[in-house]
Amino acid sequence: MQTISMSQIYTAILQTLYMIFIPLLIGSIFGTILGILMVVTRPKGILENKYVYEILNPIVNIFRSIPFIILMVAIVPFTKLIVGSSIGTDAALVPLTVFIIPYISRLVENSLLEVSSGTIEAAEAMGATPFQIIWHFLLPEAMGSLVLSLTTATIGLIGATAMAGTIGGGGIGDIAISYGYERFDTKVMIITVILLIIFVQVIQTIGNILSRKLRRG
To answer: Where are the transmembrane segments (predicted)?
Structure first.
């Protein structure tokens, strides 16, 4: 029986990092924008808009309710349209990004809603514009919580990259399925589990440290 080499494990780690970084970067940008929009356009928000909020909110809920394994299959035509294939590491980036954007948007929304209404009222009393309130008051006040939210999103993304192995997406998940599951290689399965645990622990630790430094008061 063919055994896995250290070079394959190293390649899988790099592929996993690639599948985490790109979707997280894109997801953080669009997810943060969506999260902000849902906060400011909600009832009694600083830019209250019933129509925008009632469109965005259910869309986010719909995508958040679809399990990642099903989402990967459901958007195969879209994935092929974007990258020309539904198999491989690049192909996995599409469902991973679609998965993480609404996930981050909801986490960002929750973090921003933690900001005291008194802070917003004080900013409005000083004559701050909606953009100034968002940029100079809302985001800075929520920064510690936002870091923890992105940490949670990153860990969720790690789990999704592991599932991406089912479509040959590469990474640690692909190794676990190809060698650990299909070839009944317990040693490989243990190695992949340990690697994923290390990923999660390192990211959570970094997130906790940054959050503590950024929190005010």
So the answer is: 20-40, 52-75, 81-104, 146-168, 188-210
